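The passage that follows is intended for readers who have already worked through the single-chain material. We present the inputs for a multi-component assembly, then the predicted structure in tokenized form, and finally a short commentary. You are encouraged to pause after the input and sketch how you expect the pieces to fit together before reading on.
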Amino acid sequence: MSSAPPAAYAPTGRTVPTRSRERAAYDRDVVHAILDEGYVCHLGFVRDGAPVVLPTLYARHGERLYVHGSTGSRPLRGAREDAGLAVCLTVTHVDGLVLARSAFHHSINYRSVVVHGTAHQVTDPGERAVALDAIVEQAVPGRAADSRRADAKELAATAVIRLDLLEVSAKIRTGGPNDEPEDIALPYWTGVVPVARRYGTPVPADDLDPSIPLPGYLSRPLGK
Amino acid sequence: MSSAPPAAYAPTGRTVPTRSRERAAYDRDVVHAILDEGYVCHLGFVRDGAPVVLPTLYARHGERLYVHGSTGSRPLRGAREDAGLAVCLTVTHVDGLVLARSAFHHSINYRSVVVHGTAHQVTDPGERAVALDAIVEQAVPGRAADSRRADAKELAATAVIRLDLLEVSAKIRTGGPNDEPEDIALPYWTGVVPVARRYGTPVPADDLDPSIPLPGYLSRPLGK
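Having made your guess, compare it with the prediction:
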């Protein structure tokens, strides 16, 4: 699959840089839209000089991202230091498989956001409450108010870190294959296979009181 | 959302470590199955002391992973050094949203594999050909033989790196919510919303010769 320079990503063909220091105003909506469509990111940090990449839940709240986890987990502990923890937080949506006539021009339609920065632990109780609600709401809007909020013991076991949206880039590939002109006559099927996330019918827990109906926020299709 | 130790991942609740040095034989199939179901990974490396996480295509070939990209891209250049490039390659599948009665026990059903190691550039022409075919086949089995393979110029522009499956862990969360006994009577709906990847009907390129039919490997549903 192709990866023509100047793409920063290895294999994803043509890319559209959508945010730079010069174009922050225009691009903010693009970045927010990509972030808001997801809830699982890949969080990178450095441990003993080596990279570590872990899947984790996140939420966007304004120009800030929140990630939470056990107070004992490595990145959460690292963020507790005064200097914070250098991280890279990446969110990717795959939208299609791009099948060109040439193997080289095979690609993926995708949208991604890469955030670089220093993560800091959130200690203010008010901000922690906002962040924890936001993380529940990110995946299932409407759910935070329809569940029992964390008690003191649970709060004590939960670390929250924040990462401001300062150094952010979005990359998007859309459209069909980009074959070389001399390949157009080759006898291979060419086009795009769309890819999307699908939500199934909610499955009640075995011990759910059958008199409790499916809430409205789950009756509509999730993810728009 | 909960993250009880000893989970290595921040927010994903109970996890099942499925590979360790002691249990490699049992776990190899689990690791392979998770890797084989995907084709986009998140590749982490260290640049100027800071972490970088980029989405990229990969393929598994036996006990080895391949990633490719432009010869000019940062991780591919880094892997060219004799010492190779320290990387962390992570593949994650999201299978469900787990809605507990308490916010704390909200979670995600998922399967993930994390591979740590040193990536090296592949220079042997035969192995490079195998790797490039494998990357096309990873997303669309059957496609490599039904496309024009890379010519000398394209091969010269493409770097391939390999990462052996030596230091690998898989984590899996399945099942329903794990609420506290004292929360069972709370009046909140609880259960799991299934999540899966969906492939749409293939969309032919505008310039596709209409006499070329959809190939058999695209007539069946992708991704099983």
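Commentary: Helices of chain A lie at 24-36, 74-78, 125-139, 152-157, 216-219. DSSP finds five helices and ten strands in chain A. How closely did your sketch match?
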